[in-house]
Design brief:
Number of strands: 22
Radius of gyration: 33 Å
Strand content: 5-15%
Structural class: alpha+beta
Shape: elongated
Distance between the termini: 85 Å
Largest sheet: 9 strands, mixed
Helix content: 25-40%
Length: 684
């Protein structure tokens, strides 16, 4: 990095692949978690030493305006003067001077908020940026999260402090000049995967960290109970159902994972007799009828003890509560959070009409079930989730809901100095104040008309902005910024100092005109203030998790809303297990893998194969049952008896191409048969 010289109005920091490695250990000079090839310009703020000096500056500006009207090409703003200094600094580094002039044209300004409104000030060489690359953390297993918005449990302390902070930030003297020193505590705790697996661990071992065998056992128990519950409710037994076990349930989940890789329009096509469509592995594992019966009876809760709506203890997410509690604990324990975390929403695609379905026009999937996620900004590992099953009302309700969601997602991270990045749904002045009280830093865009945002930075007060122009206000670590990028953006941050501008490499279009020294302004990006660049670099955690999850879906569409959440969490555990394996092994694939690169697709195929194993129980049991019934059908309860008052076609005659009808048949097989030899012939 270029050393800073005394007297410069700008500090130019050139990052490269060589300096990025040293930035990890020396975080005092560089902004955190930013990509390479970014040119930095620092615009410090200086307050006038006295009223006389301020009056002299105003007189000088008036003189400059007069001289400019007379035709003298003088610089009339501090940004232009700073641009000249930046151009000189860039010349020393053999950089084109257009970068500095381009920034000056963009109008990178810091504002002074006074009683009379907005006032522009000049700058001195002192810098106010003090941050570090690392923060502190302590291990915690707290994952007691309230996932359901249907529950009316409110934390009195949280909302009382929220009201106090909301009232404080609306006072007229809350915001001040952007000239204060910010303090960011270092992050120095352990982070990353936490397990004791050795080098011989395979994909199934990593998946068990997040989806343990105890959860499979719970699924088996509740599935068998629900099958008996359905039979009692209908008043008749199901001849095609027999209790399942853990091996069969794992094979069933493994087949659903493979369906996301080898996708077909209907699940019955996997058992088709057509050699070009049917899958021999599916046919070998279990029959289509058995798979359908598992689909019908799959359950996660005890229906007999489920409270009705309006009763004491009612839970709108009762059907998946055991899954939420167990998976919530395992995801939190298997991977300690890194410094930078992302909070955002994701959507689950659904078919059908469900009350929790949300419309999200800004998402690629505009309609679906909404889930809020806390993910790692770099790897995409999901630490926590919260399901949204309600609809916010006015802006105040949205701010309160966003405050509650964020505080529930970061529970247990207090005092660890993490950096949170979130979108405008969550970001508010009271929330960032509360997070700073808890030792957490945050950054994100916000609604400029939300309570607490400075009136001087609202669009109607600032007016029309040029691309790259920005204004800022500050209160301690809290910095409010408004800038013009592709559109006007308002943001709040508590982890970035005011007055720092970054320019990333732009896209040079073909045919662009170049100046004399061969450089083109089109090759330069729009200057952006530090909070916006931090947000752009670190807000991709949830999107990365969604990309890994949406590549291969798990499960099939159905009419039960809770099934979508079940397969969502199974898929999420697969993604998290893949991230843990990748980081634990340093890119080295498991033993026995012969490919060049162990991708997520290889992980899923290998996991499904290990879940299925050599299981062939369902098909073998049905074949053995048919053989026993052929030897002595009466011994196993098969007998010819009256089925109904109305005659139906004989199944045995139909198989031979004949048409005969009968009111008699076999209730175990649920078929109509003629009273002659069709009964014995069919059971052979």
């Amino acid at each position: 990095m270029a050393a800073r010289k005394r007297g410069e109005l700008f500090t130019i920091l050139e990052t490269s692949a060589d300096t990025e490695a040293s930035a990890v250990s020396d975080g005092e000079e560089c902004p955190l978690n930013l990509s390479v090839d970014v040119k930095w310009f620092e615009i410090p703020f200086r307050r006038p030493e006295s009223d006389e000096e301020e009056e002299e500056e105003e007189e000088e500006e008036e003189d400059e305006v007069v001289r400019e009207d007379e035709g003298e090409p003088e610089l009339k703003s501090a940004a232009a003067a700073a641009a000249a200094a930046a151009a000189a600094a860039a010349a020393e580094e053999d950089e084109p001077a257009d970068a500095a002039s381009y920034i000056a044209g963009g109008g990178c300004n810091i504002i002074l908020v006074t009683g009379n409104g907005i006032k522009h000030e000049e700058y001195e060489e002192e810098s106010y940026y003090a941050s570090s690359n690392n923060c502190s953390d302590t291990t915690s297993t707290d994952s007691d999260i309230d996932f359901s918005d249907l529950e009316e449990e409110e934390h009195a302390g949280l909302f009382s402090s929220y009201d106090v902070l909301d009232e404080e930030c609306t006072s007229p003297d809350f915001w001040g000049e952007p000239d204060q020193v910010i303090s960011i505590e270092p992050f120095s705790a352990d982070s990353g995967p936490q397990h004791s697996l050795g080098d011989d661990a395979d994909t199934l071992d990593y998946f068990r960290l997040l989806f343990p065998d105890s959860l499979f056992e719970h699924m088996v128990e509740q599935t068998n109970n629900y099958a008996l519950y359905r039979q009692r409710r209908s008043g008749r037994s199901d001849p095609h159902w027999h209790p399942t076990d853990v091996r069969e349930m794992k094979a069933y989940v493994g087949l659903n994972i493979l369906m996301g890789i080898n996708q077909l329009p209907d699940y019955g096509m996997y058992w088709a007799s057509d050699i070009f469509i049917g899958n021999a592995g599916f046919k070998k594992t279990m029959t289509a009828r058995r798979f359908e019966k598992l689909n019908q009876n799959l359950h996660l809760c005890d229906r007999l003890s489920e409270p009705s709506k309006g009763e004491l203890g009612y839970d709108g997410l009762y059907k998946i509560r055991p899954l939420l509690d167990m998976v919530g604990n395992t995801m939190w324990d298997a991977y300690l959070p890194n410094r930078c975390l992302t909070i955002d929403e994701c959507a689950i695609a659904t078919k059908g009409r469900f009350s929790p379905t949300q419309y999200m026009p800004s998402k690629p999937l505009r309609k679906g079930l909404k889930v809020w996620m806390l993910c790692d900004s770099r790897s995409g590992y999901c630490h926590r989730t919260r399901l949204h099953v309600g609809k916010p009302g006015d802006d105040a309700a949205v701010a309160a809901l966003g405050h509650r969601v964020v505080m529930s997602l970061v529970r247990g991270l207090e005092g660890r100095h993490h950096h949170l990045f979130m979108d405008s749904f969550f970001t508010s002045v009271p929330l960032l104040q509360r997070l700073m009280q808890d030792g957490l830093y945050a950054c994100g865009p916000t609604n400029p008309y939300r309570r607490g945002y400075p009136d001087a930075l609202r669009p109607r007060s600032v007016g029309k902005l040029e691309p790259g122009e920005f204004y800022q206000c500050q209160r301690g670590n809290l910095v409010a910024t408004i800038t013009k990028d592709a559109k006007v953006v308002s943001c709040l941050s508590s982890n970035s100092a005011p007055g720092i501008v970054g320019i990333g490499p732009g896209n040079k279009r073909d045919g662009d005109a170049s100046d004399g020294d061969g450089s083109s302004l089109s090759a330069l990006g729009i200057p952006r203030p530090l909070p916006l660049l931090l947000y752009q670099e670190n807000m991709r955690g949830v999107d990365l998790c969604d990309q890994l999850r949406e590549c291969y879906q798990v499960g099939r569409p159905c009419k039960k809303w809770w099934r979508y959440f079940l397969w969502f969490y199974v898929n999420l555990c697969i993604v998290n297990a893949y991230i843990i394996l990748r980081e634990s092994r340093g890119g080295v694939p498991p033993a026995g893998f012969n490919g060049k690169e162990f991708t997520q697709r290889h992980f899923r195929v290998r996991l499904a194969q290990q879940l299925i194993g050599d299981y062939q129980g369902a098909r073998g049991m049905e074949r053995a049952a048919r053989k026993r019934h052929a030897d002595s059908p009466l011994e196993y309860g098969h007998r010819l008896e009256r089925m109904s008052e109305r005659s139906r076609r004989c199944r045995n005659c139909t198989n031979k191409g004949l048409r005969h009808e009968s009111v008699f048949g076999c209730k175990i097989c649920n078929v109509h048969l003629c009273r002659g030899g069709c009964f014995s012939e069919f059971h052979k």
